[in-house]
Design goal:
Elements (H helix, E strand, L loop, with lengths): L2 E6 L12 H10 L4 E9 L8 E8 L2 E8 L7 H27 L4 E5 L4 H11 L4 E5 L16 H12 L3 E4 L2 H9 L8 E2 L24 E6 L3 H4 L1 H12 L5 E6 L3 H10 L6 E5 L3 H10 L2 E4 L8 H8 L4 E4 L2 H4 L8 E4 L4 H14 L5 H12 L1 H16 L2
Parallel strand pairs: 1-2, 1-5, 2-4, 5-6, 6-7, 7-8, 9-10, 9-12, 10-11, 12-13, 13-14
Antiparallel strand pairs: 3-4
Helix pairs in contact: 1-14, 7-12, 10-13
Length: 392
């Protein structure tokens, strides 16, 4: 058992319960075999009287410090930004010292997403002789996003510096590791460990969703950023489907509910779509179990947590044909591929699935997801990463 300090740039909190939820699941998995302390700092717009406060939670070998700081009230943007940066690192340091008193010095730092917690990881590396490993999930590096290239010279220099001084790098997919190598952020030496799915929450319904051909077909999509997930493209594809059949319903989970409701009205789909807004995971799983398949018409990804969650519920995924998705989806076994952004093809594949859904084995799909993405399996892989890193 190793003593690990998590420095998380993203993590679920009272400000945003979905932010970095996959990091929280990794922390829970890793804590099955290691002593894990998480530190996460966030600006809290609702914090008005105090400059800083924190919460502490302990569950077995997992200890979590969440710090919240007050934003500067200056009317000058540059001052607000500088004050925010100062408070972030000041309170990060405060919680590091506090956990050190309680838990002792960690053996290794696990940095989740280089910016901005990675700046403090550099401090610990050079001034406290604490090595760190990086887990990268960020989709900004994916070519289709174009976001990394838009970063300032200083930001890109910092990211490279943080990667350069890491003792090891973990990515959630081969494709992400390949792209980090192409951008000269790493030298091709990375460990692939997938995201995890809680199979105590995500499991198949005992009732078969496949029946005779005139049964209503239920699809689900999980949407965050509407452009990134191409949710409007899904709606336009379904409008084409509506020209052939009205025998379907789409269940939409995620934020931007009002914007999407308006889009549903303008496309004439309002009577075929159910909007849930952002939901906790138990409720997402319940929605999945109502459905026959998931639509994942994304423009770019680094993994696709919702895929393994849908699969764990026995749902095949009608997904964009991206290299990263082919790492976890096999055509006509646990999913169907469609060219990203090709709305005509998506509409045709949806119609094809309606006629062929009985050929997908719900229990086999769920079993594969459970075997490959459960907490124990992922925990073992991280344990090997820590042991090898600590050996040097």
């Amino acid at each position: 058992m190793s003593k690990i300090l998590f420095l998380a740039s993203w993590y679920p909190s009272r400000v945003d319960f979905l932010n970095g939820d996959f990091i929280e699941r990794h922390a829970k998995a890793i804590a099955l075999k290691n002593d894990v302390t998480v530190i996460f700092i966030s600006k809290d717009p609702n914090l008005t009287k105090k400059k800083f406060e924190f919460t502490y939670e302990e569950n077995g070998w997992l200890k979590v410090y969440k710090g919240y700081y007050k934003e500067s009230e200056s009317r000058f943007k540059i001052i607000r930004k500088l004050v925010s940066q100062f408070r972030y690192f000041k309170f990060l340091h405060t919680l590091y010292n506090q956990q050190s008193v309680k838990n002792g010095k960690p053996q290794l730092v696990h940095l989740y997403v280089p910016l901005k917690a990675g700046i403090y990881a550099l401090y610990l590396r050079f001034f406290k002789q604490l090595n760190y490993v990086i887990s990268e999930h960020h989709s900004i590096y994916m070519p289709a996003s174009g976001l990394y290239e838009k970063k300032s010279f200083v930001t890109k220099w910092l990211i490279k510096l943080i990667f350069k001084n890491a003792s090891a790098v973990h990515t959630v997919s081969k494709e992400l590791g390949k792209i980090l190598t192409e951008k000269n952020l790493i030298k091709g030496n990375y460990k692939i460990i997938p995201n995890v799915v809680n199979t105590n929450i995500f499991f198949p319904s005992s009732i078969s969703n496949t029946s005779h051909s005139n049964t209503t077909h239920h699809f689900v999509t999980i949407t965050g950023n509407v452009y990134h997930k191409n949710t409007d493209g899904i709606f336009r594809a379904l409008k084409k489907v509506l020209e052939k059949t009205s025998n379907f319903q789409l269940h939409v989970v995620g934020p931007y509910k009002k914007d999407l409701e308006e889009l549903a009205r303008t496309t004439g789909l309002i009577n075929h779509i159910h909007f849930y807004g952002a939901l906790p995971y138990r409720e997402v799983a319940k929605v999945n179990r109502k459905c026959d398949a998931m639509i994942f018409f994304t423009r770019y990804e680094t993994f696709g947590c919702v895929i393994i969650e849908a699969n764990a519920c026995g749902l095949p995924v009608i997904a964009s044909d991206l290299a990263v998705i082919r790492e976890i989806v096999t055509e006509n076994i646990n999913g169907i591929f469609v060219n990203s952004e090709d709305e005509d093809e998506l509409s045709k594949k949806l119609l094809w699935y309606m006629d062929h859904k009985k050929y997908f084995n719900k229990n086999e799909i769920a079993y594969f997801a459970k075997q490959n993405f459960n907490y124990e399996a992922v925990s073992t892989q991280f344990d090997e990463l820590y042991i090898n890193t600590l050996k040097g």
